Amino acid sequence: MSAPPESLPLKPLLSVKGLKASYDESIILRGIDLEVPPNSVVALLGRNGVGKTSLLRSIMGLMPRTEGTIDYEGQTISELRSDQRARLGLGYVPQGRDIFPNLTVQENLDVSLSIAGKAGHARLEQVYALFPVIKEMLSRKGGVLSGGQQQQLAIGRALLTNPKLLILDEPTEGIQPSIIDQIEDAIHSLKKEGNLSIILVEQYLDFAKAASDTFYIMDRGSVVRSGKSEELTVEVIEKHLTV
After folding, report:
1. What is the DSSP letter of 141?
2. Domain that holds residue 181
3. Which residues on neighbouring strands pair with residue 45, listed in sequence order?
């Protein structure tokens, strides 16, 4: 009796090939190749200034590329505007969070709800379950929240748009350990749902390793190492990430 055929590998949700970008005639990205499988967490690592945020901004259409392609769900999105990419299911929480400090927490959420409609309202209770502090502080201005609370709000606001790919730029930067643990738990919970992938730029290596499935390490605008997160050994960290 013949063995059953092996299942075909899943096509990547996001595929970046040969991506190059420049800023003021300075080369920032030097031919990046990166794949994000469905239902996975990909950690993007590297020392400061190596091009990680520029790569995220290029994926979102906020920084123009000079060469290369960006494919999402099998279609090329390289020429689409950032708002068009967002409507296709790319969510972005930039470094610094970019909440509206003079709006209340409720009003910050309403910005996403006005875009997402019924689907966003259906996800609201899940956001409250992931980050209970959001529900407790609906009437407070965003600007009076702690850094960790603002980060939870920024992630929650992005989730209300029902992204298929959520891009997080240094979500643990400058926040207390208890909230870092909540964000890690939220990432694991979202992944278990089976309909969301995450790109995670992170300097806190223990968090990155625990939260991710695969990793890419960047240096001087290029990917210099990639693999499964369990391969992120002390030797690899000392070679590519230690200052």
Report:
1. B
2. 11-89+165-243
3. 217
Q: Which residues make Cβ contacts (< 8 Å) with residue 124, sequence separation at least 6? A: 109, 113, 160
**Domain total of the chain:** 2
E-state strands within 141-205: 165-169, 197-201
Q: What is the DSSP track for 41-94?
A: EEEEE-STTSSHHHHHHHHHTSS--SEEEEEETTEE-TTS-HHHHHHHTEEEE-
Whether the per-residue pLDDT at 194 is higher than 90: the answer is no
For residue 83, pLDDT over 80 is answered with yes
How many whole angstroms separate alpha carbon 21 and alpha carbon 29? 5
Residue 215: give its domain's CATH number: 3.40.50.300
Q: Are residues 204 and 175 in the same domain?
A: yes
| Both structure tokens of 129 | 């379950």
Kindly report whether the global pTM for this prediction surpasses the value 0.85.
Answer: yes
| Residue 117 Rama label (left phi>0; alpha psi -120 to 50; beta) | left
Q: Specify burial of residue 6 (Cβ count, 10 A radius: 0-12, 13-18, 19+).
A: exposed
Question: Is 59 a domain residue?
Answer: yes
Same domain? For 117 and 135 the reply is yes
Alpha-carbon distance of 88 to 150, in angstroms, equals: 25
